[in-house]
Design brief:
Layout: E1 2-6, H1 11-23, E2 28-33, E3 53-57, H2 63-70, E4 75-78, H3 85-90, H4 92-112, E5 117-123, H5 149-168, E6 172-177, E7 180-181, H6 190-199, E8 204-207, E9 217-218, H7 219-232, E10 238-241, H8 250-260, E11 268-271, H9 286-292, H10 300-313, H11 315-321, H12 325-334
Parallel strand pairs: 1-2, 1-4, 2-3, 4-5, 5-6, 6-10, 7-9, 8-11
The chain binds nicotinamide-adenine-dinucleotide and thymidine-5'-diphospho-beta-D-xylose (TDX).
Length: 337
């Protein structure tokens, strides 16, 4: 089988390529990535000599480049996106272009080239925000209600993917997953930002009261869910994928990280809240469990500790990433802290 992975140099895409080459070593993989600030080929250094893996630098908005790379592809797994909520508040237009237009360009090329499956990787954020105190969860029937430019652009991409199924019969599947964590996660996101700031002796910015809840999932569980959907998922269907945490707030996450790292709570700095900050996400993943037998395997506490260890052992990786453009972004986002 020949797979086209878009955004394979990013956090989840690179973990997925590492997962796939290990579990399906005979398959051919093309990684098509623009290498924005978030793309990093260091993540895939171990595959440089692998004859079944090819990297092509390119933009999913470029019709010609996309059409060329799509020839002979059996399966597309589409990760490429602008993915950070705070950056979407600073510059929403980048999110509309990449996430909405880029997805449409890929869909059109997949249709022209008779691709056997187009799998779209999306987020639980398209469903909006749940209340802190109730017990409700998102499921496949939850109405879309995106509230940030990022989630609105991802919602737009989901709608286009579904439209290509209903209108043109393109064989698609979609997964909407909760917050991932693990190796190679860009340190603009909360968990790697916290770990690397603490390693640098800096405080950790916690937005508002810190009582915001995410349904954390270790990245390899997400990769395995996508694998199962590709093997056994029903065409035209959406599957929600989520974690096994039970209402762990940001403040609890940071306290866990501080405990693992043997530091006290002086490292916590409450800062101005994110505008439109979604209070709580929680995912009911019973459909993918009942239909495909998937459930999360990696416990949050154990794999958070392993993730801290990974950042400790890969200091050069995150120090390189935190230099250059990152510094400008950090100053704009957090000021002096
Ligand atoms: P990331 O920001 O780490 O990586 C995105 C990758 O896409 C980068 O390698 C970047 O260079 C590439 N890219 C960006 N614009 C491109 C373009 N125009 N053409 C080609 N490549 C381009 O993102 P991530 O956290 O790995 O997320 C991957 C996907 O998973 C995204 O679609 C995101 O919405 C979704 N998702 C992420 C999470 C999460 O917790 N991180 C959870 C659920 C879903
Ligand atoms: O400095 C920070 N301080 C803080 O309190 C940052 C960066 C975040 N936070 C909070 C905001 C959220 O409540 O931590 C929580 C997690 O924030 P992010 O890591 O930015 O993730 P989130 O906004 O929840 O979105 C993520 O999960 C879903 C990914 O960035 C998306 O790509 C994915 O779709």
């Amino acid at each position: 089988m020949k797979l086209l992975i878009t955004g394979g140099a990013g956090f989840i895409g690179s973990n997925f390529i590492l997962y796939w080459t290990k579990n399906h070593p005979k398959d051919f993989i093309i990684n098509f990535d623009k290498l924005t600030y978030a793309g990093n080929l260091e993540n895939l250094k171990s595959l440089e000599e692998n004859p079944n893996y090819t990297f092509i630098k390119g933009d999913i908005c470029n019709e010609q480049a996309v059409d060329k790379v799509m020839r002979g592809i059996d399966t597309v797994v589409h990760f490429a996106a602008e993915s950070h909520v705070d950056r979407s508040i600073i510059k929403p237009s980048d999110f509309v272009v990449t996430n909405v237009l880029g997805t449409q360009v890929l869909l059109a090329a997949a249709l022209r080239n008779n691709v056997g499956r187009f799998h779209h990787v999306s987020t639980d954020e398209v469903f909006g925000s749940l209340n802190f105190n109730d017990k409700s969860k998102f499921n496949e029937r939850t109405q879309y209600n995106p509230r940030s430019p990022y989630s609105a652009s991802k919602a737009g991409s989901d709608h286009l993917v579904n439209a290509y199924f209903h209108t043109y019969g393109l064989p698609i599947t979609i997964t909407n997953c909760s917050n991932n964590f693990g190796p190679y996660m860009f340190p603009e996101k909360f968990i790697p930002l916290a770990i690397t700031n603490i390693l640098e002796g800096k405080k950790v910015p916690v937005y508002g009261d810190g009582l915001y809840v995410r349904d954390w999932l270790y990245v390899m569980d997400h990769c395995r869910a996508i694998d199962l959907v590709l093997q056994k998922g029903r065409i035209g269907e959406t599957y929600l994928v989520g974690g096994m945490t039970n209402a762990v707030s940001n403040i609890e996450v940071i306290k866990k990280i501080l405990k693992i790292m043997g530091k006290n709570e002086d490292f916590i700095e409450h800062v101005k809240d994110r505008p439109g900050h979604d209070r709580r996400y929680a995912v009911d993943w019973s459909k993918i469990k009942n239909e495909l037998g998937w459930e999360p395997e990696y416990s949050f506490d154990e794999w958070l500790e392993k993730t801290v260890q990974w950042y400790k052992e890969n200091e050069k990786w995150w120090r390189d990433v935190k230099s250059g453009e990152y510094q400008t972004y950090y100053k704009e986002q957090y000021g002096k802290i």
